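Q: Predict the assembly, please.
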Amino acid sequence: MSDATPPRRCVCPGSFDPVTEGHLDVIRRATALFDEVVVAVVHNPAKAGTFDLPTRLDLLRQSLVAQPGVRVEVVGDGLLVDFCRDVGAVAVVKGLRGGTDFAYELPMALMNRHLSGLETVFIAGEPSLTHVSSSLVKEVAFHGGDVTGLVPDVVLKALLAVRDRT
Amino acid sequence: MSDATPPRRCVCPGSFDPVTEGHLDVIRRATALFDEVVVAVVHNPAKAGTFDLPTRLDLLRQSLVAQPGVRVEVVGDGLLVDFCRDVGAVAVVKGLRGGTDFAYELPMALMNRHLSGLETVFIAGEPSLTHVSSSLVKEVAFHGGDVTGLVPDVVLKALLAVRDRT
Amino acid sequence: MSDATPPRRCVCPGSFDPVTEGHLDVIRRATALFDEVVVAVVHNPAKAGTFDLPTRLDLLRQSLVAQPGVRVEVVGDGLLVDFCRDVGAVAVVKGLRGGTDFAYELPMALMNRHLSGLETVFIAGEPSLTHVSSSLVKEVAFHGGDVTGLVPDVVLKALLAVRDRT
Amino acid sequence: MSDATPPRRCVCPGSFDPVTEGHLDVIRRATALFDEVVVAVVHNPAKAGTFDLPTRLDLLRQSLVAQPGVRVEVVGDGLLVDFCRDVGAVAVVKGLRGGTDFAYELPMALMNRHLSGLETVFIAGEPSLTHVSSSLVKEVAFHGGDVTGLVPDVVLKALLAVRDRT
Amino acid sequence: MSDATPPRRCVCPGSFDPVTEGHLDVIRRATALFDEVVVAVVHNPAKAGTFDLPTRLDLLRQSLVAQPGVRVEVVGDGLLVDFCRDVGAVAVVKGLRGGTDFAYELPMALMNRHLSGLETVFIAGEPSLTHVSSSLVKEVAFHGGDVTGLVPDVVLKALLAVRDRT
Amino acid sequence: MSDATPPRRCVCPGSFDPVTEGHLDVIRRATALFDEVVVAVVHNPAKAGTFDLPTRLDLLRQSLVAQPGVRVEVVGDGLLVDFCRDVGAVAVVKGLRGGTDFAYELPMALMNRHLSGLETVFIAGEPSLTHVSSSLVKEVAFHGGDVTGLVPDVVLKALLAVRDRT
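A: Predicted assembly structure:
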């Protein structure tokens, strides 16, 4: 018992519009590193996405239903560092697909460290998912391409529903 | 007590020839992310360094004496993934100074994941130490430059002793 | 005759708004690698360009009139991989100006490979044209700069006509 | 007296919406390299910024009041190379935060060299300000974060005034 | 018959010390782009490798025995551009694993273009083989790691034979 | 006369083994930025080059004979920052060929700034010389390739003399 420590939590932030297998890969890897993973949906009211916030949350929760130690929450109006403090997270986890990803993420990671000491840890995304991002998956799906396997089944259905509507 | 979990260990590998403030920065950040940090000195018998193995270990241990939750060990002839399994580590921690660092580290990180599922987490090194590496510090010190503040005091003394000897 | 093979076709896609000497350099290099080159104008109806689609095609065709083995077509609503299958292309050809260009193109290239096995080949653009892109050429021309030599003569005239109109 | 030369001028261009300590760091370093520094506010009438042009100029001038050899001007409708010729500048000075910054700046630098022979010199920004850009500072400030030390005091006040208004 | 053209050949150069599944992936992709692929073993007599030249050739040929349209040759003392001219190749094919790979290869590609007009085409390596290079595979194998699946079976045996000998 | 200022000096360091047109391009550009350019041959006694120090200096001086405001000197055993202080230089000038070049140069530039406040300014090398480096030129020349135009004539002769000797 003397070795016991409080659980270590991390936050996986994103817009998840919609969640892809690339996101799920990073979230699953995070569960191997930390005791609890809080998936944080960053919501920008000024920027309409493809899916509204309740749908994004719903798709995420359905995709993660079998994943213990993971919960999904919304980052409100405030800063990510405030959200992380509120949920008791020691780190933000980000997946990287290449060196330019790191260059893009670095200023935000250093800003968060500056603001509250919050650390960002980067992990290499699964290479076989390098081509999987929300925007590219949507572009392919909406032009009639098959994205089976690149997103969870519930997201596949949701994408097809959007395509048929437009 | 139901929240208690076994301690999470990570490994910070390197040749540490000698340890610099850049290394110590990454090690200290790792202690905020994991319960225990094993600093792993990778020893390549085929490649003579500036300092021999016992000296590197000694300088590391003196530099880390005030750092709880950190211990220093030698990686023997085997693979880093075997060492990590033996010490019960869930991750390797590496500091990055830029996108090209990541590109250089990525194949090794993916190889380790392939071999044993071992994950590598990357953290941004403190930007004000971007110019601090063992090789550059030695080059400066051996050409008469002042590296005070770039290495711990015990290393500064050791570097000057090497310089005066040659 | 036993050595004879069917002609190998490649596709050079782009928005060509308008075509520049940078584009023509890549197209000409592609003719040395493949028997036939299909220049594919990707048309996004949701995004108004500087030139409308018929003008882009016209400028391209005038610029390529002396280039045997090259034809210009429009990619309709579907995916680029479907267009490539329809024209019988074995590869997409893309010019690169630097490592970050590659990082940007990589996910799309891997997505196309995933969707249909279509390969993307990258060739180094002529370094002396590193500064030549449609957007930078337009910015210079519309602020009164001389872009002679950076675009074909027909494009130069078209750019000046747009500038004088606004 | 035979060694005397005419003063060497450089231009530090930017939109400065608003000026940050990152900009001031580059401007100050430029004063050590050249006799006179012209800070050139690039004004894009088509793109509404956070602060209007007179306010940007005012914030810059207040921030640079103690800096001899520096003056602030507006780049009008024309090209930067024409502005540089008019003020007699031998070079543009740009701060770099990483290799991807350079890749982004390179085409514009080569275009300016092509248009008028104007050279661009790149200097490494202060690493401890890697996270400081106008856009990131605004994002933090408008979400309630403290950006003291990342911008001059007059800018801090101006940012808080904008935040309270919205 | 009027559409028939002479076969298009490309060259895949490397030291192949030894061939890996990463090399084979690029060679196989090249066969989809060109009619014939010449695998060119670059031999540097001044630099002793792990395997001697006859062994490298033998391992390559055994690994490629089922691959039609591919042959293996040695580049002698001369330049790669001379070798390519002698075998009638229109292009060199190189696999890329990331943007830094491209930056490394670019000067050599441009030098070859300068010397003889020889073009280099770059293709994205299979992402799931990002961690597979001759040097990393050897490092792992010689430290007791299992590299099954990363190299052809004949190479696996050859690596184990070397390991047992040392 | 009141506008007169003391001359501004910069240092262009390198091993120049041998000088290439790529080096001369950067040196010439430096003369447009600073009043005087000191070309500093860094000499590493532990590392035998292709040409000995007196030959490197001789080739540089012959190549620069028509270039006013440039002189060639040897950096002795000390640090580059000490050399720069001794010659009264305000900056080191380095040519960049891409973003990875910058990533490589950045730690040394920041170390020099740390040691003495010495600034490094980076300028874009002439793109049409991207393939020109001492090592690549020597590799080509020693394998029988023609490097005319990539090095000054005196260097061309010197390279051929070395080739014929070996």
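The longest helix of chain B spans residues 99-116. The beta strands of chain B are 9-14, 36-42, 70-75, 89-96, 119-124.
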